[in-house]
Design a protein that fits this description.
Length: 253
């Protein structure tokens, strides 16, 4: 009996960290726990007010850290026992904690049902599952990769920076939109070095080998137009890529 009780007191995430447990189906992984924890500070804090956020922190810890399944049975007074007021006092009464729950219900951070013992059955949503938080995450992830605006940085010969150019182009040739792999792509100078071009990021684009060879020292937009005339890209694709190339050359992307 003692061994069983001791086993139940061991935190679920600690077990994952030590390798003594693999995440069962329906329970959070260690990697997911770390990511979701960071979302609380980075995104949920912009949605939920400070005092309610403190309550959510406690519920997140007691559910996902202790059990990994986002479900907990607990009275509000015990939740408050983990939180101190601005005066340093423990918030250990039900009424005080409940006053801080408005945002958690409003933004669907938790759902609650009551048991006859007066403890609450609480389902704690992961930050990435909370609609208002999810919206902020998606907005952040949809932003383009930001690059340093230092023209002295060499993006042509540095392997890491070359990959950044490929990722900026979403893994496609900027001239014909064919998919290109990390082990086969070419970095093309929009303005050739022979015409005063540089290795700065705004003068470089990811290209497939055939387009790079055919383009040679041709103007980038003119070469793109030739691909359109050869039916390698549609009119809509040409206009979109033309605007993209012009944005690079004007250092707007």
């Amino acid at each position: 009996m003692t061994a069983i009780l001791r086993r139940k007191n061991v935190a679920y995430i600690t077990d994952l960290l030590t390798g003594s447990l693999q995440p069962p189906p329906g329970q959070i992984s260690l990697e997911r726990y770390i990511i979701e924890s960071s979302y609380i500070t980075k995104y949920l804090s912009r949605v939920v007010k400070d005092k309610a956020l403190a309550v959510y922190h406690v519920l997140f810890y007691l559910s996902y850290y202790e059990t990994g399944n986002g479900q907990i049975v607990i009275p509000w007074a015990r939740v408050g026992a983990y939180i101190r007021s601005e005066q340093g006092n423990i918030i250990d009464n039900t009424t005080t904690v409940k006053r801080r729950l408005g945002d958690l219900f409003k933004y669907k951070c938790i759902t609650v049902t009551r048991q006859r013992s007066l403890a609450n059955v609480i389902a704690v949503q992961l930050p990435s599952s909370i609609p208002a938080c999810r919206k902020l995450i998606e907005e952040e992830e949809s932003k383009p990769v930001q690059f340093p605006e230092d023209d002295s940085l060499d993006y042509y010969t540095d392997p890491g920076r070359r990959l950044q150019i490929l990722h900026r182009e979403n893994g496609r040739c900027v001239y014909c939109l064919v998919e290109i792999a990390e082990n086969s792509f070419v970095i093309d100078h929009l303005v050739p070095m022979s015409k005063g071009g540089t290795n700065a990021r705004h003068n470089l684009a990811a290209s497939c080998g055939p387009c790079n060879q055919r383009k040679a020292d041709t103007d980038a937009v003119e070469f793109l137009l030739s691909n359109y005339r050869s039916s390698l890209i549609t009119q809509e694709e040409f206009l979109k890529q033309k605007a993209y190339l012009e944005g690079l050359l004007e250092k707007q992307i």
